[in-house]
Amino acid sequence: MLLNLFVMNVFLMLCAWIWVTFNHRAGLVDVIWSFGIALNVLIAANVMNEAPTSVRIFLAIASGLWFLRLAWHLFRRYIREDAEDTRYANMRRAMGDFQHLGFLLFFLFQAGLISLFSYPMIKLLSIPAMQWSNSTELLLMISGLIMLVAFIGEALADHQLYQFKLNPNNRGKTMDQGLWKYSRHPNYFFEWIHWFAYPILGIAAGTPWLWIYPVLMWLFLYYITGIPFSEQQALKNRGANYKMYQQKTSMFLPWPPKK
User: Fold this and answer.
1) Helices (DSSP H) in the chain: which residue ranges?
2) R_g of the chain, CA atoms, integer Å
3) Are 132 and 204 in contact (CB under 8 A)?
4) DSSP state for residue 97 in the 8-state scheme
5) pLDDT in tens, 95-111
């Protein structure tokens, strides 16, 4: 199952890479990454019948909706922007004459990341019903509550920022209202919260190692792909305006702003 899904992920990313080769807008990779995870989970929940029915339904609906919503948000942002995302434009310049090969390797690497971040759900779906404890239903409720809070929080943060950017009067300004008043990256915060649902559910299935996923996502967001680049670009584009925002607003955890 894992191998078949990985082959599908590679195919999705190869198709995206071919498309990007012609339109030079590599931000599509983010859309396919999120859509790919949703597709992995939905296929696995439909094909694998080892886990309890309630777990299969929960992961198909909760995880499927989570990543489909994210894919739609990223796609909506992708089609609205005329130029290539700054991250990938910088990558293109850095790779120079080797950009086609470089992006091919990058897209294939993203196929691997789809498999990596789909694995918690697929692993839970592969555990036979007899191995789940009597606390499964309670932990399903707790995981569902975490998912719901994270879904509402990230969807609201994304919507607030999207509406802010639609207003041409806000060009060059920093979004500091709504959830963005309490955190400079509320979308990343709720993305991180979402990943706690799987290890908590995994307690009922005897998979304590799933706690590595909230840690892994925190490392990605805090040090690798999320916050560092966003902060760098915000300072470059908005300068003193963003520095003032940094001084009064928590970077990650929502917290009342400093006066």
Assistant:
1) 2-23, 28-47, 53-58, 64-80, 86-95, 99-126, 136-166, 186-194, 197-202, 212-219, 227-248
2) 19
3) yes
4) G
5) 988 998 999 999 999 99
166 by DSSP, 3-state: which?
helix
Measured over the CA atoms of residue 241, residue 246, residue 248 and residue 252, the dihedral's sign is positive
What pLDDT shows up at residue 87?
83
| Structure-token pair, residue 135 | 């606390």
Please give the pLDDT value at position 233: 86
Using CA atoms, how far residue 177 sits from 91, 221, 253, in Å, is 32, 22, 16
> What does the DSSP 8-state code read for residue 256?
P
Which pLDDT tens digit goes with each residue over 161-196?
999 988 988 888 899 999 999 999 999 999 999 999
- Predicted TM-score of the model (pTM): 0.92
Q: Give yes or no for residue 259 having a pLDDT over 80.
A: no
CA distance 212 to 120: 10
- Write down the mean pLDDT value for the chain: 93
Where in the chain are the domains? 1-132, 135-259
Both structure tokens of 32? 């396919």
User: By the 8 A CB rule, do 124 and 59 touch?
Assistant: yes
Residue 220's CB: how many other CB atoms inside 10 A?
Answer: 17
